[in-house]
Amino acid sequence: MQITVTVNGDEHTADVEPRLLLVHFLRDKLGLTGTHWGCDTSNCGVCVVWLDGTPVKSCTVLAVMADGHTVRTVEGLADGAALDPVQEGFVRCHGLQCGFCTPGMMMTARWLLDHNPDPSEDEIREAISGQSCRCTGYENIVRSVRWAASRGTEVSAS
């Protein structure tokens, strides 16, 4: 099947098999490897992207379901060389850790802050509860999101 998907503002048309998952379309067809592939069962959350502005686990969405829609990946967070406050927060507050869960966490955190610019620690923990981090107890991730919330929507030049 031929699909056309707008990813991070750029329109892409490709021939895909009807069973191809969105995560594989992004990684294998478009070369956007920031979206990670973890469990294939939607348990880990490392594959979170936005589909028409809503976070989805791309391992449970077929690429053909994105035909005619807009997808935003972790590569679409930065504005050129300027990091999004969420990305900056993960760097400054050591939320990156091993990095495997980071893209999904960042996409979820950006969505949360777009809808709730000053979330409590409990609200942050609830927002990321659909994702697994095997490195820590999430302290640095929560701290990273709080740091980003304190910066609002300003974009960093670093």
TrEMBL record:
Keywords: 2Fe-2S, Iron, Iron-sulfur, Metal-binding, Oxidoreductase. InterPro entries: 2Fe-2S-bd, 2Fe-2S-bd_dom_sf, 2Fe-2S_ferredoxin-like_sf, 2Fe-2S_ferredoxin-type, Beta-grasp_dom_sf, Diverse_Oxidoreductases. The keyword Nucleotide-binding does not apply. Residues 1-77 form the 2Fe-2S ferredoxin-type domain. It comes from the Bacteria. The keyword Iron-sulfur applies. Transmembrane segments: none annotated. PROSITE patterns: 2FE2S_FER_2. CDD domains: fer2. This is (2Fe-2S)-binding protein. It comes from Phytohabitans maris.
